[in-house]
Amino acid sequence: MNQVKQYLSIFSPSSSQQRQDNFENYWDFTQQHSGDLLESEQDLTKKRAVLAHFKANPITLRQPFAQPEAFYRNYVELKDDVSTLDRKTLLLTCIYKFARHEWVGITGAWAATPDFANSKDVTDRISRYHLAEEFSHTRLFHEMFCTLGLDKTEWVPLGPIAQKVYEFFPKLPEDLMSPFAFVTELMGIMFYRYVDNILDEVFADEPEACARLRELLNEITIDELAHIGQRRNYIGDFGIKVSAWITPPLFKMFFHDIPETKLFFNIDNMIKEALVFDYKEIPTPLMEKTWVPSYCVVPA
Ligand SMILES: [Fe+2]
Ligand SMILES: [Fe+2]
Question: Between the N and C ends of the chain, which has fewer C-beta atoms within 10 Å?
Fold first, then answer.
């Protein structure tokens, strides 16, 4: 019988030899998991097939989405009084705003990292694959909006200052950048799990749409679970302490910019859970498809 794996904190210590071995192991995993890189399209063959499957099997809403104009009016910037908006609209504008930051971040990083042909080592190759996976997430998020009939959703750049910050960030030296990159991945996982927790309640009257949103979110979450381990793998003993120190302010600063989050989530609790994250709450079917650093798994 297969032994159920037990996991350790994502902040667990690691040696440099362990991290080197884990990069090699992750590189094998990511190619298996995502397929071949389609660099000019910022895509991967298996990711493309997954999206095509969803598009070929659309679900039918029980009722047309109630407030499409309200969604389009508020998705880039919250303009209406929130008491006039229903929870579906607010959750979707919240998800869009989170995904938009990701999209801007990866667009800046894609421009700043060597392409696959010019990748010098395994971490360069991993970075290129990682970013292509992130672009596939933007498409999966887009598919969430299409599922609700919100096909006119556009990906709008941030303001010039925020845009510059995201372009500057990937040019920082690796040691300086790694804790921030790791914590933003951790923030992604916490956010997606919190969204997953409320989907059934918010979309109770649309069970088919709810199930499809969860399928799309799971596709993203499986990758992001692998990303937190991968980004953690860049970090030594001091960097992992820095990562814990910057987790509370970074979460607070980021979510402050997305006013919808406080309508749904307790950010202080999210921070507490992030600081002890150990994969324990993640459903087994997701864990079976993702990747975890060896030093975060209890030896059998
Ligand atoms: Fe992401
Ligand atoms: Fe990620």
Answer: N
The rounded Å distance from CA 31 to ligand 2 centre is 16
- Above 90 in pLDDT, residue 21? yes
Please list, in sequence order, all residues whose beta carbon lies within 8 angstroms of the beta carbon of residue 29, skipping any fewer than 6 positions away: 226, 291
Q: Which residue has the tokens 């650093």?
A: 293
Task: Report CA(17)–ligand 1 centroid distance (Å).
Answer: 27
Mean pLDDT of 136-160: 96
Identify the three-state secondary structure at position 65.
Answer: coil
| Helices 207-232 + 16-34 axis angle, to 10 | 150
Ligand nearest to the CA of 220: 1
Distance 66 CA to ligand 2 centre (A): 32
Q: How far is the CA of 300 from the centre of ligand 1 (A)?
A: 31
**What is the distance between the alpha carbons of residues 91 and 67, in angstroms, rounded to a whole number?**
12
Cα–Cα distance, 205 to 198 (Å, whole number): 13
Cα 62 to averaged position of ligand 1 atoms, centre (Å): 30
Q: How many residues does the chain have?
A: 300
| Nearest listed ligand to the Cα of residue 192 | 1
Judged against a pLDDT cut of 70, whether residue 1 lies above it is answered with no
Torsion angle (degrees, nearest 10) of CA 110, 114, 120, 126? 10
